[in-house]
Amino acid sequence: MYGNNNKKSINITSMFQNLIPEGSDIFSRRCIWVNGPVIVGAGPSGLAVAAGLKREGVPFIILERANCIASLWQNRTYDRLKLHLPKQFCQLPNYPFPDEFPEYPTKFQFIQYLESYAANFDINPKFNETVQSAKYDETFGLWRVKTISNMGQLGSCEFEYICRWIVVATGENAEKVVPDFEGLEDFGGDVLHAGDYKSGGRYQGKKVLVVGCGNSGMEVSLDLYNHGANPSMVVRSAVHVLPREIFGKSTFELGVTMMKYMPVWLADKTILFLARIILGNTDKYGLKRPKIGPLELKNKEGKTPVLDIGALPKIRSGKIKIVPGIIKFGKGKVELIDGRVLEIDSVILATGYRSNVPSWLKVINKTSFIHCFFSRFSLNFRHLMMSEDKTHKKNHPTRS
To answer: What transmembrane ranges does the database entry give (predicted)?
Structure first.
């Protein structure tokens, strides 16, 4: 099926240049045939898919727009960040975390783990290569993945990868979401997205407005307070705040276990009952809960509950202030929907991220979609690939 499995790709521009009909743009760039799937993204999902293919002897190429693996973790996370879930739920296939790592590894430990994972499975992404478009060519029955590679002082080079399959592993957090607030351009103070926030040290003694009350907003507010700032957090909509652990057991693990034995609505009611015992009534602090339970909300709308790691006690005591939605900004101030005007020095936008896949993935119909695999389906993808070729060897090392 794959021909020479020892070779991941072949430069086919020169091989077929004279055979292409006049006017065709199939080889308008430097064209590379990939003897297996193209994986877009070298984060945890992309690495996991690559390792699975590697173990089965399936060639592949990983394209990564940044200059490192797990660029979100390396470049767009704050220093105090730790995994919000126990490490056993975050480890990648066939390679557990080191025993000496704590139950909730720091971001630096997680990055170390991912780099070790890539080294263990000899995964070498093509860095600084941004996918411009990926389109299924029905004439040839192949994917055409067009990229621009940043080659530093040598400038940039355009490539086109030709392959039968594409794996989308870019995650849900590829691009920052920056709302268009009236008057923000006239604010005059420091405005930063949470993706660029590292530490609260520079904000000591300042009045900081944190826009957003998800996990990032909560943790950034806590970090600001711990560094001597005066944070106010904008809560615009209902949010589920849960304890990270319930009676010594991970809330996430508890939820997953309960869903095996009871319907989601009952698991939700149980978790919320226990959360109220531990956290009290969060509504009276301005953190109203949605009508839908946290597990059902995650399943239906993809909204993740907040796992409290210390911000809620500061909210109760008034050290982190909760404020409602924003009407507009002015010079050194913000007007809120309840009529209050707050004087502030800085704004941190904990307003989340979005996927950038719709901007470059051109899925025209069902024919093209069945040749495209998103990382959440990577296990099924691996089995599909293996079912077509029984000769792959399973001889790559794993950590025992």
So the answer is: none
Which residues, listed in sequence order, are joined to residue 343 by a DSSP beta bridge?
333
Element (H, E) at 47: helix 44-55
CB-CB contact of 5 with 37 (8 Å)? no
Look at residues 47, 55, 89 and name the one whose alpha carbon lies nearest to residue 71.
47
The answer as to whether 399 is a domain residue is no
As a whole number of angstroms, the distance between CA 141 and CA 26 comes to 12
Q: What is the CATH number of the domain that holds 262?
A: 3.50.50.60
Which residues have a Cβ under 8 Å from the Cβ of 359 and sit 6 or more positions away?
none
Nearest Cα to 218, choosing from 286, 269, 275?
286
- Give the domain extent around 131: 9-173+355-387
Is 0.90 topped by the overall pTM? no
Tell me whether residue 84 is in a domain. yes
How many other CB atoms sit within 10 Å of the CB of residue 16?
12
Q: Are 290 and 200 in contact (CB under 8 A)?
A: no
- DSSP-assigned letters across all residues of 105-143: -BHHHHHHHHHHHHHHTT---B-SEEEEEEEEETTTTEE
Q: Say whether both 76 and 119 belong to one domain.
A: yes
Question: What is the tally of structural domains in the chain?
Answer: 2
Question: Quick one: 146 and 18 in the same domain?
Answer: yes
DSSP state of 226: H
Return the ∠ at Cα 60 (arms to 59 and 61), rounded to 5°: 145
Of the candidates 210, 209, 183, 207, the one whose C-alpha atom is nearest the C-alpha of residue 351 is 210
pLDDT tens for 302-331 read 889 999 999 999 999 999 999 999 999 999
Question: Tokens 């089965």 label which residue?
Answer: 56
Render pLDDT for 119-169 as a digit per residue (tens, 0 to 9).
999 999 999 999 999 999 888 889 999 999 987 777 789 999 999 999 999
Asked whether residue 320 is domain-assigned, the answer is yes
